[in-house]
Structures are given as structure tokens and as C-alpha cells.
Amino acid sequence: MGERMRIVIVGSGGVGKSALTIRFLQNKFIQEYDPTIEDTYRKTMTIDKKSVFLDILDTAGQEEYTSMENTYFRLGDGFVCVYSITSADSYKKMKDCMENVLMHKDQQYFPIIIVGNKCDLKTKREVTPSQVAKDFKKTKYQYIETSALEGINVNKIFIDLVRTCRKHSLFLKEQEKKQKNKKKKKNCIIM
């Protein structure tokens, strides 16, 4: 059995979180849209010759369900923060979502991939890649534009996030090791 990761997909309603998830899991596009309250999916895959079992939580984007967010934020190992390139408002809400994730994780950095969905609708674009690059210039977050409709970069989101989670986990283990070594040195009394 391989490692297990909890991936949480967040963003406002109607940006295509469920469409991205279904495209990833079943390689099909869902036409009809029912607002998601919460759906959990599972998929096992091999990335870099290591097996990984993904628990994917597709969260609600509707305001009335935001009370569930605290649980999502605490449990997630990595986050897919989605907005629609055709909606500046969804971009603002996605940035607010990211802030909530970081606040709940009590860290300045956490495995997050920023996803601009609906790149097939370039003529209706309200958010440019240069705007995203400017807003996140000082961070390590990866930015990907996707299309659930056309299947563009959908698998890349999850593969790259797994790799980022693995690196972050190694980093945290190294930090923990350094802390233990510091404590040991403090506890040693030289006579």
C-alpha cells in the first residue's frame, strides 16, 4: 500500500471544481450543474514510481456551506484553489479561500496549486496570467490554467500537487528533526 493524501478543492460556486474532479477521475465532462454540498472521491495512482491513494474532497462553493470549511482546512494535505478566468469576483474569493487555508494551517506556506479554470473561454477572460503572477510573485505557489471541458492540464493539477505535498512533508520532517536536535543540545549540561 502507498501513501495516503487528502486533497481539498476549494473556490466559489460555479468555477468548475466538480467538473475538474470528474474530468480527473473519469475523463469526462459533466454538462449539468448541481451545486455541490460536499463530495468525496478516491483514486489510487502511481506518481514517480510511488503509489498514492488520494482522498479528494470537492467542497461547496456556496456561502451557506462555509461553516464546513474549518474541517476541510484542518484535514487537507494539499489544496487546489480554483477560480474561473472569466470571473474577477471568483478570483477574489479564491484568494480569500487561500488566506483561510493558511490561517487554519498556521503556516506561511502550504501545498496549494492555484487553478484558473475555463481557459477554453479566453474571449471572456477577466483575469490574466500576468495579474496572477503579480499577485503571487513572492510565493512559491504554482499556477495552472485548465479547462475541464477540453481536459486541458487537469491531470497535471493532481500530479503536481502530490509532488508538492511530498516535498512539503520532507521539509516538515527535516524541521522537526532540527528542533529535536536543538532541544537535545539545550538539555546537555557541560560540566
UniProtKB/TrEMBL annotation:
UniProt cross-references to Gene3D superfamilies, sorted A to Z: P-loop containing nucleotide triphosphate hydrolases
InterPro entries per UniProt: P-loop_NTPase, Small_GTP-bd, Small_GTPase, Small_GTPase_Ras-type
Keyword tags: GTP-binding, Nucleotide-binding
Pfam families: Ras (PF00071)
Superkingdom of source: Eukaryota
Protein name per UniProt: Ras-like protein
